[in-house]
């Protein structure tokens, strides 16, 4: 059964036949923004950029040039008198600046409103189809971010013209645009309450504008010295406001988080006010930076030699660093508000608090109201009170509309508020939408049962012995797929047999040998030329290379040559037996608690099962599909090139009990976890799951199952083993990302538990997340088992890592796993647990209670190889920021976001001399 990425959560009524040559499905109108809106936004961007260039040109032009240009567009001479002229008054100069700022704000506010609209559109899409991942992964979200960036730059230029307190009220223009776009684009309901709230907010802003105009505040320029003296003046207000604002934001957000009030009025207040306060600090840091830059780069020969010194001053660098420190939380809180509330409800409050935040920063830090007369101060205070009245009206409406909002989940108020925002793009899910819906049920899954002679291998020594046995037993065919294989590594010390020698013996016996190979050498695989010299003639060699790799610029900083790899690992002999995983061979792999060539330990598991007729057909197609002459293949000099495995929008899937990564395998894992009655044992090399940025729902499913057990009062235990670091990765950037991803996953596990009302202490009773470490010398034991065991009865052993790179609707790597069940699972689990905890060798009984016994021992004793992982003591916001940087700057390396195509090329070893050159050119292509 094949699945589309657009509807991976929907149970398919009938299988979809996969066709490599089929064009991608047409984009539905419901998934796109209206064309008139896109055209308006694009035109506004162009006009805004031209307007900003004009403003910059005016700032750099001489007075005579400025007068000539502005006279041409009809500006009165009285407004253009030079500073030394008697006709130059504060009133005329201020008016000119004010009018320029208003014109600039008209377009900038529309772009900001359009950006909010696009981001909300992305949130609604994700609410309707959880498989799309996070809203921030949608192209429409990135387009909205771009519109916000242009609007922000426009506002920043205004900050260079106007004071911060004077600039603040112009943000209310966004309300008018948001109301129109929310109604026409998002189709949100605009009620009389919304109208009244917006009118009060706009009225308050108008009063503030009037106060600013009556005050006649002249524009002021600063140097680094004068700015420092102003910000660090002998006053208690700057420090007090900073402390008060940060304390308010922290305590209110913590209250919302701990009480799960995200969709209620206090959540609306928390997200809008905190984002507005951060916006004030963002504007403060930006305006300060601009003032220093203007002074340092002024066309003044007397100051030009001081420019470099000022720009290298630590105080200036601190101002620059403060911009992202305030901007990142502002954007984060903005999107949290859009996630839980519609634009017509959230944006008015957000804009009101932007105004207040900017006003307070201008008042406290720049002392911009020092020249205000008592009349202007009263007007300004009255405007602020009217604005706050509009805010209160909106908050009261939230409580009135949703008095019974559930506090036990993260259910969004926007779920009902924006239910008509987009047409349905997929068949309706159960109500409420099941976040754990799968394309097939547990009963639809097929397993290889132990009565069918399923055998498990618990360390690499056993895997090597099985490889030797299978290769020697072959009489008709060998199909071998590998990610990493040292064909000359000795597998059997007694005879000196290696993979290459065993293949030569098989070819000599008349066995047909097919090898599907990953030729990318990032992890130490031999080159194609070296492999062809090692393999005997008449071996059918195919190699698979993805089209996903780093850009030319990224290659200057990373030693990765590809982001997608052929990662399937299996050995099928005579179409009768198949070994899934455990068949990659190199010096890094070694037996249990035997140090490898790199100085640490390796943990490997393999499974051998009978190969059914359907499985055998898929294995042959996986190899021969590239070796046969197809209409979309290119053959020259005995080399066949075949484009295959388009992971979006379709993915071909092997028959059960095989799974090949992607959304199908993720669905199988979710089904297994939610089906568990007593225990789950999950081991994986990589742990990247949870949160809105990850497609795979494995960690969410674990917490969901724990929550069900806790509510029912049932005993349930989860053992999750992974690696705290990946020191064998060739890229140091990848190593840090893997370490950061573990922190991300642990934070999400805790966060998801708190969402459901589970305390940290309660969660710890059910779940243990740990790594493996030698119990005597403390050496790292690399978890490479990638195994899921449920109730000591059902299991999945796969090459897939627990990450979107393997388990999503758009995976990056090709994978293969095997579902198996029966008594063999209980025996495998007991053998593994005894390896981890030798002290339980005589007392541990196989069965569903084995995990509970191990967890009880590990919590009371350190005499085992299991060491619990702990959260690092840094802020989750820092983790979120770094994960966003990695995910969105990775060019698809993190998986699940980019369409990947594999080009598989095949030839026969030793066929002709031209084959080698054709193979080399094929790989280079």
UniProtKB/TrEMBL annotation:
Residue ranges constituting the PLD phosphodiesterase domain according to the UniProt record: 562-589, 779-806
GO cellular component: membrane
InterPro entries in alphabetical order: Mg_trans_NIPA, PLipase_D/transphosphatidylase
Leader sequence segment: none
Transmembrane segments: 36-58, 96-119, 140-162, 168-186, 198-216, 236-253, 315-334, 346-366, 378-396
Main localization (coarse): membrane
Protein's recorded name: PLD phosphodiesterase domain-containing protein
Keywords from the UniProt entry: Membrane, Transmembrane, Transmembrane helix
PANTHER family from the UniProt entry: MAGNESIUM TRANSPORTER NIPA8-RELATED, PTHR12570
Gene3D superfamilies hit by this protein: Endonuclease Chain A
Source species: Pythium insidiosum
Pfam family, any one: Mg_trans_NIPA
Annotated GO MF terms: catalytic activity; magnesium ion transmembrane transporter activity
Localization per record: Membrane
Lineage top rank: taxon: Eukaryota
Membrane protein topology class: Multi-pass membrane protein
């Amino acid at each position: 059964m094949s699945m589309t990425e657009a509807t991976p959560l929907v149970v398919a009524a009938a299988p979809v036949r996969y066709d490599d040559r089929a064009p991608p499905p047409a984009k539905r109108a419901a998934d796109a923004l209206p064309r008139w809106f896109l055209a308006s936004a694009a035109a506004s961007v162009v006009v805004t950029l031209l307007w900003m260039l004009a403003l910059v040109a005016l700032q750099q032009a001489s007075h005579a040039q400025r007068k000539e240009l502005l006279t041409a567009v009809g500006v009165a001479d009285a407004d253009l008198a030079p500073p030394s002229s008697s006709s130059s008054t504060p009133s005329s100069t201020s008016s000119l600046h004010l009018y320029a700022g208003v014109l600039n704000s008209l377009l900038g506010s529309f772009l900001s409103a359009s950006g909010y609209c696009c981001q909300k559109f992305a949130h609604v899409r994700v609410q309707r189809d959880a498989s799309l991942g996070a809203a921030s992964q949608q192209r429409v979200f990135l387009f909205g971010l771009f519109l916000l960036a242009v609007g922000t730059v426009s506002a920043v230029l205004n900050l260079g013209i106007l004071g911060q307190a004077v600039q603040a009220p112009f943000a209310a223009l966004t309300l008018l645009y948001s109301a129109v776009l929310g109604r026409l684009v998002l189709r949100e309901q605009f009620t009389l309450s919304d109208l009244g709230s917006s009118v009060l907010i706009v009225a308050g802003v108008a009063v503030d504008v009037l106060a600013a105009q009556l005050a006649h505040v002249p524009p002021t320029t600063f140097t680094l010295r004068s700015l420092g003296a102003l910000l660090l003046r002998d006053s208690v207000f700057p420090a007090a406001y900073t402390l008060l604002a940060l304390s308010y934001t922290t305590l209110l957000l913590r209250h919302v988080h701990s009480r799960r009030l995200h969709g209620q009025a206090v959540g609306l207040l928390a997200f809008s006010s905190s984002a507005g306060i951060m916006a004030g600090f963002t504007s403060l840091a930006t305006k300060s930076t601009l003032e220093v830059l203007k002074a340092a780069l002024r066309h003044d020969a007397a100051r030009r030699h001081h420019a470099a010194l000022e720009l290298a001053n630590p105080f200036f660098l601190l101002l620059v660093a403060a911009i992202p420190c305030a901007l990142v939380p502002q954007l984060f809180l903005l999107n949290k508000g859009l996630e839980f509330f519609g634009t017509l409800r959230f944006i008015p409050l957000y804009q009101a608090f932007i105004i207040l935040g900017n006003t307070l920063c201008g008042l406290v830090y720049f002392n911009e109201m020092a020249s205000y007369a008592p009349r202007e101060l009263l007007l300004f205070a009255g405007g602020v009170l009217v604005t706050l009245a509009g805010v209160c009206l909106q908050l009261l409406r939230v409580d009135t509309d949703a008095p019974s909002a559930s506090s036990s989940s993260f259910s969004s108020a926007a779920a009902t508020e924006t239910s008509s925002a987009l047409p349905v793009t997929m068949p309706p899910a159960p109500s409420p939408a099941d976040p754990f819906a799968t394309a097939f049920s547990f009963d639809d899954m097929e397993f290889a049962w132990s009565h069918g002679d399923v055998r498990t291998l618990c360390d690499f020594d056993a895997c090597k012995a099985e490889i030797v046995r299978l290769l020697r037993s072959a009489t008709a065919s060998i199909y071998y797929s590998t990610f990493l294989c040292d064909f000359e590594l000795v597998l059997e010390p007694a005879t000196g047999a290696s993979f290459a020698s065993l293949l030569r013996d098989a070819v000599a016996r008349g066995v047909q040998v097919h090898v599907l190979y990953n030729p990318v050498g990032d992890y130490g695989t031999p080159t194609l030329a070296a492999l062809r010299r090692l393999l005997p003639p008449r071996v059918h060699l195919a190699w698979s290379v993805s089209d996903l790799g780093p850009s030319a610029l990224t290659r200057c900083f990373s030693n990765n040559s590809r982001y997608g790899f052929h990662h399937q690992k299996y050995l099928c002999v005579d179409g009768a037996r198949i070994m899934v995983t455990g068949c990659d061979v190199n010096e890094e792999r070694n037996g249990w608690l035997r140090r490898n060539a790199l100085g640490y330990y390796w943990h490997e598991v393999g499974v051998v099962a009978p190969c059914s007729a359907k499985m055998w057909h898929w294995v042959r197609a996986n190899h021969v599909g590239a070796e046969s002459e197809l209409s979309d293949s290119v053959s020259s000099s005995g080399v066949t090139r075949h484009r295959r495995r388009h992971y979006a929008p379709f993915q071909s899937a092997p028959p059960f009990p095989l799974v090949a990564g992607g959304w199908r395998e993720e669905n199988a894992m979710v089904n297994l976890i939610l089906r568990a009655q007593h225990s789950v044992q999950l081991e994986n090399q990589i742990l990247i799951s949870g949160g809105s940025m990850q497609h795979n729902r494995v960690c969410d499913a674990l917490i969901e199952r724990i929550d069900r057990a806790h509510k029912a009062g049932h005993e349930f235990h989860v053992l999750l083993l992974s690696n705290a670091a990946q020191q064998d990765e060739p890229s140091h950037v990848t190593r840090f990302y893997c370490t950061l991803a573990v922190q991300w996953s642990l934070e999400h596990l805790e966060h998801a538990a708190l969402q459901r009302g589970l305390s940290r202490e309660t969660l710890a009773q059910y779940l243990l997340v740990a790594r493996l470490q030698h119990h005597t010398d403390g050496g790292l034991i690399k978890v490479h088992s990638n195994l899921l065991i449920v109730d000591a009865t059902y299991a999945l052993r796969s090459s897939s890592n627990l990450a979107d790179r393997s388990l999503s609707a758009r995976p990056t790597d090709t994978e293969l796993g095997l579902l198996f069940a029966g008594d063999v699972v209980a025996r495998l689990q007991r053998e593994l647990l005894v390896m981890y905890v030798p002290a339980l060798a005589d007392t541990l009984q196989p069965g569903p209670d084995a995990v509970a016994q191990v967890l009880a021992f590990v919590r009371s004793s350190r005499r085992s190889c299991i060491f619990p992982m702990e959260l690092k003591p840094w802020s989750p916001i820092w983790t979120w920021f770094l994960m966003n940087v990695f995910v969105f700057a990775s060019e698809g390396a993190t998986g699940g976001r980019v369409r990947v195509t594999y080009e598989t090329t095949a030839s026969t070893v030793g066929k002709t001399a031209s084959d080698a050159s054709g193979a080399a050119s094929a790989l280079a292509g």
